[in-house]
Design goal:
Elements (H helix, E strand, L loop, with lengths): L1 H6 L4 H21 L5 H22 L8 H71 L1
Length: 139
Amino acid sequence: MAVIVVFLKDHLIFQVLLKDFSIIAGAIIAGYIQYDSPSRRISELINETIVMCVLYCMICFSPFVPNIGARQIVGYACCLLVSIHLTLNLFLILTSSVLGLKVKLRLWLARFRLKRQRAQNAIKIKSRKRTLKNAILNY
């Protein structure tokens, strides 16, 4: 990305097109990578697709589209795409965080119950030892 921006600083359309081609290549590569779950693969492909659509919107901000009204409409569409992308990713992040907290809470509760059960068992064992000792002494 940095090489494209530095060496093609006077040619905006080539910057955008080369970046689009790199996003397309990234989407193709993301399609072939093996992920842990199918939902992870789908989310990667959706991310690549939305970024590609935003970059296609950037072409419309170049001098190839002389109509200011059309640029304004494309600008609103671009803002909408970015908002959808941000909302989708925040939802996925929050969902995974909540699931992680749920698992941690279940582990904490299981450990707490185990400690409580061990403490109760230790009290029962001491009581049985005391009862056995008293029975032996009284015999």
